[in-house]
Structures are given as C-alpha cells and as structure tokens.
Amino acid sequence: MAAHDVPLYDLAVIGGGINGTGIARDxxxxxxxxxxxxxxxxxxxxxxxxxxxxxxxxxxxxYYEFRLVAEALAEREILLRAAPHIISPLQFVxxxxxxxxPAWMIRAGLFLYDHLGGRRTLPASFGVSLQGTRWGAGLQxxxxxxxxxxxARVDDxxxxxxxxxxxxxxxxxxxxxxxxxxxxxxxxxxxxELADGSGSSxxxxxxxxxxxxxxxxxxxxxAASSALGRENLRHIKGSHIVVPRVHAEExxxxxxxxxxxxVFIIPYQGVFSLIGTTDISLExxxxxxxxxxxxDYLCDIANSYLAAPIRPRDVVWSYSGVRALYDDGSDNPSxxxxxxxxxxxxxxxxxxxxxxxxxxKITTYRRVAETVLAELKPFFPQMKREWTAGAPLPGGDMxxxxxxxxxxxxxxxxxxxxxxxxRALLHRHGTRASRVLGEAKSAAxxxxxxxxxxxxxxxxxxxxxxxxxxxxxxxxxxxxxGLHLSAEQRDSVAAYLREQYGQEDS
Length: 506
Fold this sequence. Notes:
Layout (H helix, E strand, L loop, with lengths): L7 E7 L3 H12 L4 E4 L15 E2 L11 H17 L4 E9 L7 H14 L9 E4 L15 E10 L1 H14 L3 E3 L2 E9 L2 E8 L4 E11 L5 H8 L8 E12 L7 E5 L5 E7 L3 E5 L3 E2 L10 H12 L13 E10 L13 E6 L8 E6 L5 H12 L25 H12 L5 H11 L3 H5 L11 E3 L2 E2 H10 L5 H8 L8 H15 L5
Parallel strand pairs: 1-2, 1-10, 2-7, 4-12, 10-18
Antiparallel strand pairs: 3-6, 4-6, 5-6, 8-9, 9-10, 11-14, 11-15, 11-16, 12-13, 13-14, 17-18, 19-20
Helix pairs in contact: 1-4, 1-7, 8-9, 12-13
C-alpha cells in the first residue's frame, strides 16, 4: 500500500479504558480526527475493576493530596450532571473508632471535604448516633457514634462505554480487539501497525500519539520512544468481593482498620453488598486474581464492624484490577499518590508527539482529558476549545425533572413492560432506553429472555452499538446481569452470541 493510501489521523489514542475513551471523546469534539485502539474489550482491565465510586477520596487528605481531592470533588459535581442514569448520590457512614482517629480529626477532614471542591448538590456532612437508628443498620451495638458524608456511585464500565459512544458520535473511529504491533516515527508522522483478533494487519498514520494504556504505559513508552523513560510505575492490585446484602438501608459504610487502610461496604445491584478494596504491590499484572488472603482480609475487616459476620463461602463474585500508579518512592502501597502524571515526548524536531499518562483516578478522567489536550495544543493549533464540562454523556440528556421524569415518560410509553425492566434499562441507557425497546408492547416482543432483566433485544443492541462481542462483555461490563443469572443462563447468552453473530466467548 502506498504511503498516501494509508489512513491519516490527527491523534491515535492507545487504550480503551476510562482515560483513553475520555481523551478520544474530548479530542473528537474539538475537531480532531481520532482513532482509538484497544487490544481487548472496552473497560476490560482496570476501568471495570474499581470500587465504582465518583469521589474525592476522603483518605487522601491524610496524605496532603489537597489539589487532587479538590479536583476530584469538582469533577464529582460535573459528572453527576453529565450522566445521572449511571452516576447517583450515595451517603457514607463512618463509624467512629476513637483509638484509630480522634473525632476532631474526622470532623476537620469532613469540613475540608465539604468545602474543597465547591459542593453544590450533595448535602454536607454531619454527626449521627448509630444505636437504634437507621445509620447503624447491620453494625455491632458497640458502635455508638458516627459521621455521615456524601459522594456518588458509578457503573464504571458503562462510563467507559458511554465515553466511547460520545467519541464515535463526534467522529472518532473505535477499534476494539485490535493490538498495537509497532509504532515508529518517520517523516514527521507516527506509522502504526495494528493486528485484530483474526490476525489481519492494518497500517495507519497519525500526527500525535496518546499512550493511555494503564498498566502497560511504560512498556509502550519505552518501545516507541527513542530513549528509555526515567519514570517508573507501581502496579497495585485492588480486589473486591460481593456478598448477599448485609443491611437493608441505602447508605454505604466506610470502615477504618488498624493498618490505617479503609474498606467500603456499598449496597450493590439491589440484593448484594460490594466490599473493597485491598492494596497489594505485584509484578505480574496481566491477569490479576483475588487471593484467599485478600478475601480473608476483607471479611475480617467487615466482621469487626458487622453484627452478622460474613465468611469466604458467602462470596458470590470477586474481581481484581491493577492500578498503574506513578512511582513516587513511597514504601506503603496505600500512600502512593493517586494523582496523574503526564510525560510528553515531543520528538526530535517537535513533530509526532507522544504523550504518556501515568496514574489517575476514574473520577478525574474528564479533567485528565482536558489537561492532555492542553499539552498537545501547540501541535494542533486548530483544536477547538474545551467543551465537555457542560455536555451530557450519551443517555444523560434528561428532560426537566431529571431521572424521575424520564422514568415516568418510559412508563407511559411502555406500560406493558415490567417496571423492573424499564428501571434497569433506564439505569443502563438513560434517555436511550427506547432505542433498545423499539416499539415493543410486551416483554415477549423483546426476544429470548435470558433471565433477570436481560432480553435478546438488548443483547442485539449491545452488539450493534456498543462493541459487545462476548458473553463476558454483555454480562459483566455492559450490564451486571451476570450476578443475577445462573451458570446455565449465562451459558445461554454465550450460545446466542455464537449462533447469531458467530462470536466466541472470551
């Protein structure tokens, strides 16, 4: 293929996690031609393995990360407006343990937390009695005092998919299950070789390269750059467990431990509780899995607070992800900065820049994208201004009255469908739920019912619109229906994908 026949983009973004998709969306909306490349499925690594919170990070105040906390809290407000269907307010109860942190320290921290980020929509923190009140539901009677503050929860994998959809709708090209084979500079451009899952190869060119590969960021930077970078990463495994719901109230708990770490217990998917996370340094980060020691650790911390203990046999699901944190020299994995660090390699003559992103939090992904593009602005003077702060994500363009009004509209349009199904689709797709439902008057018109709230009509939509290919994509990332289905029902989803689309589960 002649060089002039090779597709040319302004920007190639490598990595289909939250930062990569957020950068691709922002760049495409500023008028750049963008290609996003992901070697697996969207959000198939760190970005689907978070604690599923949009938060400032209360504990980071103890490490004097004031700028990071303030930025994250400001972003929390923006994201609550941008995607109310997948991001919702959540109150947290912190039971007081005087021997771990004195009350004055907690009150001071919560005062800062309330005011650092320009809180507008969420209530301020306050103290509570735990005994005999809903705030102490499920806790041992010895806990008498506590503090309540607000943050937000998020469907992390769907947040990634919605950013990819936003990127595509602004003109970006999204290639999943496509591996970067080689990236080299030549003639003021990046020349990139790609290979898809079938082994077919393709070549593209681009004027700039963004390395948003998370745990693999240093590997790619060193492979593509003419000189090895001095930056190092710390790969920190964080694991979570899911158990049957430990209390009936809607608030979460933030639990202190004697090792100075904190663990969350969060109501999850209606009938479950999500418990995490751990912080463990590791070298082999390709396919992290939870260890029995981590399960015991999380159960032990939870049991030091819960009235009804949980045991490892109660775990119905677990997952582990790797946080790729910028190595700031800290010996304690919990103390390593969660802030992001950008490293720009402008090339020998200031052509074909490569920008590598180290670290970062899911909460600050939108701000990260703005910062990345500010760094690249000198190379793309035609780039338009920032725009994402006031723009809803796909499905987040709610009518007056917000999510409740949208739910009423959906009920009026689809009165023959189960309310549980309408609500589930609303919280997955927002105002786009009708694109899944079409003209269906009854559930029978949605095709095969795989169980819970998953029907063939949605599976078809996820394949056609959201890059889903395997049962894992559908059950654990695009939806969380895998938690609610039996093994046989999950197998039937895989069989359907094979029969209808020739897809092999992966």
